[in-house]
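In response to reviewer comment 3 from the previous cycle, which asked for concrete evidence that the modeling workflow produces usable outputs, we include below a single protein chain processed end to end. The sequence was submitted unchanged, and the resulting structure tokens are shown without manual editing.
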Amino acid sequence: MIFADLLQSASNAPSDVSALESSISALERAISALESAVKVLESKSPPWEYSVWIFTFLVVVGVALELLVIRHEWRDDMEAWALAHFGVLRSPGRPSRVKLRVEVASVLLITIGVMGELVVGIHIASINGELRGKSAELRSKNSELRSKSDQLLALMTKEAAQLRKDAEDKRIARVKLEQQIEPRTFPVRDRQRLGDHLRQLAPNINGIPIEVSFDFNDTEALLFATQLEDTLTRAGIKFGLKPAPQQSMDFMGIIVV
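The workflow returned the following structure tokens.
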């Protein structure tokens, strides 16, 4: 009976528990999706970070070439100055194609390197911004999950306490009901105490006819009569069983002789 009542009480638990469990499941799925998104974003960043070194190297090479061009121009200028200073006239030489290619290459390398760094910086900034947003959302979801879990734990603890209280109330009610409907008995300690008391009176009681009649079809009356017999036996009082006078055979009597 108690287990059936507990099962019924559990089935009648408030829907808040189910709602919290559904909310927690949804949060766990959202957290799992966010963690996957964070991992994807983290995997996108390294290639761009590595490419920064390539573009930086191009800039360094371009600057080095530009320095070579500057040094070459300085040497040409110094040579022209020296010739002019000493009064030596010389027709200008043919422009160097190598110098032109180096100048163009240096400018292109620097331009490509700077543009590459700019593009990489934009992409990394975008990835980092999105990663920060996902991380903030993940922290928020984790915080909400902890809050929901605490609420669920508190609610389940409250429900468990209520179930225990209901079970105890039902047990007490059952015990009281059993006490009300169970046959009345004469406890052994009471029979022993009464027997000890009657033992002192047995010499005076023996010989005095005393009759107690009961319906032996009545279980409670039969049980009480049996316990009365035990009490008289403990007291050393002589008695016997026989049909009660002037009664049908449905009645028996305890006759103290």
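The chain is about 80% helix and 5% strand. We consider this sufficient to address the reviewer's concern, and the full set will be provided in the supplementary archive.
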